[in-house]
Design goal:
Low-confidence stretches: none
Mean pLDDT: 96
Number of helices: 0
Oligomer: single chain
CATH class of the largest domain: Mainly Beta
Largest sheet: 5 strands, mixed
Helix content: under 10%
Strand content: over 45%
Length: 242
């Protein structure tokens, strides 16, 4: 059967859909359209149990995942962890999103989608799933990960317990370029709204990006690493109270 819900044509303004999967509704399907080539950004949040999400190119535009349709992205993280898809260079056309419960789980969820220009436009995902929950930063912490065409951004949520300066250092490996920005989600809607980017560092390849900022206590802080040029980009991110 065709997709249960239509999200229309994606734009840079995220569309939000809230729903439930469980015993009587094991899968929800959403149709959408990409008006021009770009990146598709997706976040599945608000979970109380494990659910998974997959993105398909709907080649014949019938709102059904059928023979010949291509899966272009998926996220199957366990437990109640946020799932996300950030994938570049997607052609204009029709797509279908599937949200599936895992096993016998039942859970509510919030699904957000947006589109942003392909790298190297310098326009990263404007969605804020917690891909890495750092917790309270009381000492130096280092994280190693990778961004690229099939995962254009990584988002780290962290907690500030006391007002102080923090330094964020991004060290990409090789002749590639990833950039860094610090965000405070002041209205807690898990979207990067106007005025919520505290600082950005966009130095070129061969240089470490560094942000130092004085932060007040709160749990709605995010640091985002995103692809500018190169694929894939291995990196280390250090967060240090100073």
């Amino acid at each position: 059967m065709p997709a249960e819900f239509s999200l229309g044509t994606l734009s840079s303004t995220p569309v939000v859909a809230s729903n439930f999967v469980g015993n009587n509704d094991t899968r929800d399907t959403f149709s959408l359209r990409l008006g021009s080539s770009g990146s598709i950004n997706l976040a599945l949040t608000g979970l109380s149990a494990d659910a998974d999400v997959r993105l398909f190119r709907d080649l014949n535009g019938n709102g059904i995942v059928d023979f010949g349709d291509t899966q272009v992205g998926s996220s199957t993280r366990g437990g109640d962890l946020d799932d996300s898809i950030n994938i570049a260079n997607q052609a204009a056309g029709n797509y279908v999103v599937q949200v599936d419960r895992f096993g016998t789980n039942q859970t509510k969820y919030d699904l957000r989608l947006s589109t942003t220009p392909n790298p190297p436009s310098g326009s990263p995902s404007n969605l804020l799933p917690t891909e890495t929950a750092v917790g309270a930063v009381t000492s130096s912490r280092t994280f190693n990960d990778q961004v690229g065409n099939t995962d254009t951004s990584d988002t780290f949520n962290f907690v500030v317990n006391s007002a102080r300066n923090f330094r964020f250092t991004l060290d990409p490996v090789g002749n590639v370029d990833a950039d860094l920005r610090l965000i405070q989600d002041r209205n807690s809607n898990l979207v990067v709204d106007a005025g919520e980017v505290i600082a950005t560092s966009t130095l070129g390849s061969g240089s470490n990006d560094v942000i130092t900022s004085f932060l007040q206590p709160g749990d709605n802080y995010f640091v985002q690493v995103y692809q500018f040029s190169g694929n894939p980009i291995d990196y280390s991110l250090n967060i240090t109270p100073v």
